[in-house]
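Look over what follows to help learners.
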Amino acid sequence: QVQLVESGGGLVQSGGSLRLSCEVSGSIFGIVSMAWYRQAPAKQRELVAGITNSDSTDYAGSVEGRFTISRGNAKNTVYLQMNGLKPEDTAVYYCNAARLPGLSALWGQGTQVTVSS
């Protein structure tokens, strides 16, 4: 069974940096794009950044210029480099993989990012 395994969250001071990793455990067949979402307490889950199989990227306006999404050489790992972190970036961050029609999307278990002021 294909799973997404996240790592790299933690506590950091405002202005600091963190790098999140998401590894596909199993076959990457059928995955067309991957993304990072986040959900803060009492808020809806929102898209942070996405990357397609052709390495086209997209960012939420609130993180553009501070966060960078990228893929590893083996294409089974996605990273989110977060610089210039702000307290409003505090949330649980989830990795997502969109797949071909007929295959359900995949979600990671989530990793907590906390930015102190």
About this structure: The longest strand covers residues 31-39. The CA atoms of residues 30 and 101 lie 9 Å apart.
